[in-house]
Amino acid sequence: NLALDVDKLSGGQNPIMIATLAAAYAEAGRFPEAVGTIQRALQLATAQNNGPQITTFQMELGMYQAGTPLHAGVPASSGQQQKP
């Protein structure tokens, strides 16, 4: 898994890379792993006092807890296609 490799290469200290790994888990239907991983990203963002990341990761956490992959929450007006 490329996202897992990138997370390892970053030393597990880059919240964006961790969030990417969480999104990959959710996309694969592995929601327990997605929840645990995004919680780790949220902890790092909180420790770094990064308000925008905290807000984003909290939203993603709620999606993964609800069993929703990240792409399903992308608004249609963003220019990205949604899957049915």
Short description:
The protein contains four helices and no strands.
Describe the secondary-structure layout:
Blueprint: H1 2-9, H2 15-27, H3 31-47, H4 51-65
Helix pairs in contact: 1-2, 2-3, 2-4, 3-4
Q: How does this model look, in words?
A:
This protein is mainly alpha-helical and 84 residues long. It has helices at residues 2-9, 15-27, 31-47, 51-65.
Question: What descriptors fit this protein?
Answer:
single chain, 84 residues, mainly alpha, 4 helices, 0% strand, globular, disordered C terminus
Unreliable parts = 75-84
Major sheet characteristics: none
Mean pLDDT: 83
Question: What's the gyration radius in Å?
Answer: 12 Å
User: Termini distance?
Assistant: 25 Å
- Which outline best applies? globular
Counting DSSP E segments of at least 2 residues, the number of strands comes to: 0
Beta content: under 5%
Q: What is the structural class?
A: mainly alpha
Tally of helical runs: 4
The level of helicity is 55-70%
Would you list the SSEs in sequence order as H and E? HHHH
